[in-house]
Amino acid sequence: MRAPIGNFDEAVPLPKALDLLVPPVAEAVRGWRGSVPAEDLLFVDSDPEKADTAVFVETYGADLAEASANCVIVAGRRGGETTLAAVLVPSTTRADVNGAVRRQLGARKVSFAPHETAVRETGMEYGGITVLGLPAGWPVLLDAAVVARDHVLIGSGARRGKLIVPGAALAELPGAEVLAGLGR
């Protein structure tokens, strides 16, 4: 199957790529209940040495600059309690951590979660963390511009490989909240 975006040799529907996915992402695919069929969520292989956005776009297609989204894990603090959350914004922007994210989480302070915490809590590789397969109860903050896209390129949970998903499917993830202007 040909990928709807980018220049990839092959796109594999996620239910047929479970052995290529990290356990939390594979489990999320097995339990998928969204209105977008799981077969419309695709895995594309990529070189982990070319995972950083600029190099990735140069290698796999200029159209990916606008079609890619980055996931960051943040830690919101208020009154001695910490809330971990995922934030997904277009790759051409930065997450508004001290504004929109802080307000949405009702936190006094928000910062990027330490690498070790993000990896341990998600069960994913740093540099490939994605919004699919996150721990139950986590807020998943999605920029409205990402959800509006026909197809979005996101991490696969590992540095090798990416997922291509319809933006509308992201809005149906557990804990998903769609916000305008999350990325600046």
Automatic annotation (TrEMBL):
YbaK/aminoacyl-tRNA synthetase-associated domain sequence ranges: 50-172
Domain of life: Bacteria
Gene Ontology molecular function terms on file: aminoacyl-tRNA deacylase activity
UniProt-listed InterPro entries: YbaK/aa-tRNA-synt-asso_dom_sf, YbaK/aa-tRNA-synth-assoc-dom
Coiled-coil segments: none
The protein's name in its UniProt record: YbaK/aminoacyl-tRNA synthetase-associated domain-containing protein
